[in-house]
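Hello,

Our lab assistant flagged a job as stuck in the queue for most of the afternoon. It eventually completed. Since we weren't sure the result was trustworthy after the delay, we are filing this so someone can double-check. Below is the sequence as submitted and the structure that was eventually returned. Let us know if re-running is recommended.
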Amino acid sequence: MEKEGEKKLGREEILAKYKIDLTKLEKEQKTLAKQLVIKDSIDFSKVVKVGGYSNIFFQNKIISGIIILNPAFELVEQKYFSDKIRFPYIPGFRAYRELPAMTSCFYQLDEKPEVVFISGHGISHPRLGLASHFSLLTQVPSIGIADSLLVGEVKGDDVLLNGKVVAKVLQTKVGSKPIYVSPGNLISMKSAVELTRKFVREPHKLPEPLRMSHKYAKDVMREVFKV
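-- returned structure --
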């Protein structure tokens, strides 16, 4: 949610107000993207702590919530962090808006996840998706789960960008629109898809860690902030 009056401003006015140099940020994203490793860093068939992240906005605040489940879908830990929004919503630059709260939330955890699902894009981004950026900062393997595409062409169950497969189209719930799964960092496409399928539980569409983190963040907003 934008700050009061922010919607009335044009893009250039918003950039000037926040002193944002998009050319500089684009260059940073492209430089960081060269560090991504889209290969399995561990044996993902043996992971026992799987995280899910959700960020929600109200008034001029962000709530970042993470939950960690085991393979039996039992809750291991949950934490949240809330802060003032310090960066406007600009498509393609979500990480600069959301990562500060996400990393602050992450470093409160007693039990670190071995892999984390994030609402957003991994390598299915023109430069550097939120899931990829988070993983570069924390060195936790990440999987981006998105409801729509920023870039790319769908061919069968593949999403192609510049001739490379950057995401997979998964129909996880009959009658619902598909989700787009893309590795963020330190995990292969194959493992990202397998883990997504493994952690989807009927009748839900999203992998359970992500679905439960959505619910947790909303509960925090209602119970802690009385919104």
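-- support follow-up --
The delay was a queue issue, not a problem with the job. The result is valid. Helices lie at 11-18, 22-33, 94-106, 130-138, 189-199, 208-223. DSSP finds six helices and nine strands in the chain.
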